[in-house]
Every structure is written in structure tokens, then in C-alpha cells.
Amino acid sequence: MTQIRxxxxxxxxxxxxxxxxxxxxxxxxxxxxxxxxxxxxxxxxxxxxNLTGASLVGADLRFADLTGAVxxxxxxSQxxxxxxxxxxxxxxxxxxxxxxxxxxxxxxxxxxxxxxxASWLGGADLDSAVLSGARLRNACYDVEARWPEGFNPQRxxxxxxxxxxxxxxxxxxxxxx
Length: 177
What we know:
This protein is low in regular secondary structure.
């Protein structure tokens, strides 16, 4: 059995019957302030979950479904979010510093004032996302990334790269391991 605890109080927020959170069904779970730092949530179903203020630093959320989830003020820095589904998710004020968002679906996501600095956005779908005040300095993206109509990521400090920098890719692989 796995327990998810609050990052400040240590209070148990959720009991999961499995020993792992890989592919866990956490649909609509109330995980506000959860301590999920470095946790493997590969393929987890977090649709509609409330992760406001949660710590997901360095977590593995590849292939996870966070459609419609609330992640306001959540810390996802250095998290592996490759191919995760964040469509219509609320990531206002979230910290995604140096996160791997390769192929992530952020269609219609609320990224108001989100920190995406130094993140990898190759192939990410940000079409219809709300990026008011989002910080993109030193974020990298490729030609496959999709942005809201009329949005210019380079004006916000993001860099278009032909391919992912191999040193950056090696760092991301080490962080995900």
C-alpha cells in the first residue's frame, strides 16, 4: 500500500492499494499540497485531480493523463512530463523550470504566470493555451511545437532548436532515472 502525504503537515491525503503509483487511478483525487517529489507516476490517471500547491519536483509523469487537473502553484521543476496530457489543465503560477515537456499535450491549458524557463517543449502542443505572463526564458522548442495563434515564443526568450541539445538530453535522461 502506498500513501500520499501533505508536504508540510505529513497528513495522509490518499491511500493507494498498490505498492506503486505507476498507472494509478487518481481520477478527481484531492491531492492539494501533496508531496510527490521524485515519485514515479508513469501513466497515472490524474484527470480532474486537484494538485494545487503540490510538490512534483523531479517526478516522472510520462504518459500520465492530467486532463482538466488543477495544478495552481504546483512545483513541477525538473519533472519528466513527456507525452503527458494536460489539455484544459490549470497550471496558473506553476513552476515548470527545466521540465521535460517533449510531446506534451497542453491544448487549452491555463499557463498564466507559469515558469517554463529552461524547459524542453519539443513537439509540445500549446495550441489555445493561455500564456499571459508565462516565463519562457531559455526554454527550447522545435518546429513540431504548436503555439497559440499569433504567439511568438522567441519574444518571450524561448529558443527554436533544430534538434534537442545532446548535453541537455543526457541531463534529462539522468534526471528521469
